[in-house]
Design a protein that fits this description.
flavoprotein, FAD, alpha+beta, flavin adenine dinucleotide binding, four-stranded mixed beta sheet, oxidoreductase activity, acting on the CH-CH group of donors, binds flavin-adenine dinucleotide, Butyryl-CoA Dehydrogenase, subunit A, domain 2, Butyryl-CoA Dehydrogenase, subunit A, domain 3
Length: 393
C-alpha cells in the first residue's frame, strides 16, 4: 500500500476548493441555510464533498469509505476548509453516521448511510432541552414502548437546522426509574412523522439557525432505535467524541481573524490618521498575535497527543477556553475599531467589511457555550486537573 503523503493530499483538497468552492454566503460558525435555494446549494455541495472522499472516508468500505484512509486526512480537510472559508457539509449527518456505524444494525446502516452520503437526508441533532443543556442527562423527553413503536413526548431546543432536516438523531428517556444517564435511548427519527412540530428561532445575529422541536405522541418504529434500549448515553458520548477534527480549524479561524483585524486597523481612518498609527492599537494587535501563537502551539500539541493516544485531562478544556475567549476579544476589537460604524448591522454596505465583525461578535457568544460552556470547561479543569472539590450537579 502506498504511504500516505500529507502534502499531496493537502494539495488535492486545496486545488479542489480553489476550483469548486461555491459562491455561498460565508457566515461564521455552524449555521443553517436561510432559504430553499441555499438549502439546495448546500445539499449539492455537501454531496460533492462526500463524493470526493473528503468526508465519510473513515466509513466502512461497503458504504463508500476508503480502506486506505489516513486519520490525518480529517485534520487537513478541516484546516483547508477553514483557510478557504468554504462551507463544510450541512447538518448533523457526520455525528449520526458515527452512531449508526458503531451501534446501528446492518439494516439501519444500509438505509441511512447511503442517504447521508447522497444528501437525500439532512440530519439534525435532537439532544438539548429547555432544562437539559450542560446537564444533558436530565432530559425529560420520553419514549414509551407500545408494541412495535415507541411513543415520544416532550421538547428539544437549540436544534440547528431542524426546520430543514429529514432525519433527527434523537435522545429520549426510556427508563425514568434508574440513574439519569442509564435510562436514555438513541433513535433515528424520521422528521416527517405526525406529531413533530418544528419552530425556527431567530437569534441576535438576525439569522434562524436554531429551532424548537415539539413531540406530541409521535409513534416511532422500534426498529428506529440505535443500539440497545437505555444505551443512549454511551452512544451519544461516543459519537460526540468522534467529532474531533474541528479543533485545528478553530485556530486557523483565529489566525484569519487576526490578519483581517490588522488589515482593518490599516484601513480605518481616524481624525489624526489611520488606526494602526495609534501605538495603543498596535500594542493590542501585538498582544492578540502572541495569544494566537500560543493557541496555535497548544492546538498542535493537543492534536499530536490525541494522535499518539497520550491526551491529557487539561487538553480539551484549555484549548476550548483559550479559543472561545480569544475569539470573543478579537471580534469585540473588530467592532470597536470601526467607531460609530460598529453599530451598523451585518450586511449594511456602510459597515466595515459588510459587518463581518458585528456577525463575528454576536456569534462569538455561541462559541463560549457550544461543545461545553466556558463554566463547564472551568469545572472540568478544576475537578479533573487541579483536584478541586466536585461541582454540586
Ligand atoms: C452554536 C450552537 C449550536 C448548537 N446546536 C445544537 C444542536 O444542533 N442540537 C442540540 O441538541 N443542541 C445544540 N446546541 C445546544 C448546546 O448543546 C447547549 O447550548 C449547551 O449544552 C448548553 O446548554 P444550555 O444552553 O441549556 O445552557 P445551560 O446549561 O442552561 O447553561 C446556562 C449557563 O449556566 C452555566 N452553567 C451550567 N451548568 C453549570 C455548572 N455546573 N457550573 C457552572 N456554570 C454552569 C453555563 O456555563 C451557562 O453560562 C447548540 C449550541 C450552540 C451554541
Amino acid at each position: 500500500m502506498a504511504e500516505f503523503n500529507a502534502d499531496s493530499f493537502r494539495s488535492r483538497v486545496r486545488a479542489f476548493l480553489d476550483e469548486n468552492a461555491p459562491d455561498l454566503p460565508f457566515r461564521t460558525g455552524t449555521r443553517a441555510p436561510e432559504n430553499d435555494e441555499e438549502d439546495a446549494q448546500f445539499r449539492a455541495w455537501s454531496r460533492d464533498l462526500y463524493a470526493q472522499g473528503f468526508y465519510g472516508a473513515d466509513w466502512p468500505q461497503q458504504y463508500g469509505g476508503n480502506p486506505h484512509h489516513h486519520s490525518d486526512e480529517e485534520f487537513i480537510v478541516s484546516d483547508e476548509f477553514a483557510r478557504k472559508r468554504a462551507p463544510t457539509p450541512v447538518g448533523a449527518g457526520s455525528l449520526a453516521s458515527h452512531a449508526l456505524i458503531n451501534f446501528g444494525t446492518p439494516e439501519q446502516c444500509g438505509i441511512y448511510l447511503p442517504a447521508i452520503r447522497s444528501y437525500e437526508h439532512v440530519w439534525c441533532q435532537l439532544f438539548s432541552e429547555p432544562d437539559a443543556g450542560s446537564d444533558l442527562a436530565s432530559m425529560r423527553t420520553t419514549a414509551v414502548r407500545d408494541g412495535d413503536v415507541y411513543v415520544v413526548n416532550g421538547q428539544k431546543v437549540w436544534s440547528t437546522n431542524a426546520y430543514r432536516s429529514d432525519m433527527g438523531y434523537l435522545l429520549a428517556r426510556t427508563d425514568p426509574n434508574v440513574v439519569k444517564q442509564a435510562g436514555i435511548s438513541a433513535f433515528a427519527l424520521d422528521m416527517s412523522l405526525p406529531g413533530i412540530e418544528t419552530r425556527p428561532l431567530r437569534e441576535m445575529t438576525g439569522t434562524s439557525d436554531f429551532n424548537e422541536v415539539f413531540f406530541s405522541d409521535v409513534r416511532v418504529p422500534a426498529s428506529a432505535m440505535i443500539g440497545a434500549e437505555n444505551d443512549g448515553w454511551r452512544i451519544a458520548t461516543d459519537s460526540l467524541g468522534a467529532e474531533r477534527a474541528g479543533v485545528g480549524a478553530l485556530v486557523v479561524r483565529l489566525r484569519q481573524n487576526l490578519d483581517a483585524l490588522i488589515d482593518l486597523a490599516r484601513r480605518s481612518q481616524r481624525s489624526n490618521g489611520r488606526a494602526s498609527d495609534d501605538p495603543t492599537v498596535r500594542q493590542t494587535l501585538a498582544a492578540f498575535a502572541a495569544r494566537v501563537q500560543i493557541a496555535t502551539l497548544m492546538s498542535q500539541a493537543t492534536m499530536e497527543r490525541r494522535q499518539r493516544g497520550t491526551s491529557r485531562v487539561m487538553d480539551v478544556p484549555v484549548s476550548k477556553l483559550s479559543f472561545a475567549n480569544l475569539n470573543w476579544d478579537i471580534a469585540e476589537y473588530g467592532v470597536m475599531l470601526q467607531g460609530m460604524r460598529g453599530t451598523l448591522a451585518h450586511g449594511e454596505s456602510e459597515a466595515a467589511d459588510h459587518g463581518r465583525w458585528q456577525d463575528e461578535l454576536l456569534y462569538a457568544k455561541a462559541y463560549t457555550i457550544s461543545g461545553g460552556s466556558n463554566q463547564v470547561m472551568q469545572n472540568m479543569l478544576g475537578e479533573r486537573a487541579l483536584g478541586l472539590p466536585r461541582d454540586g450537579k
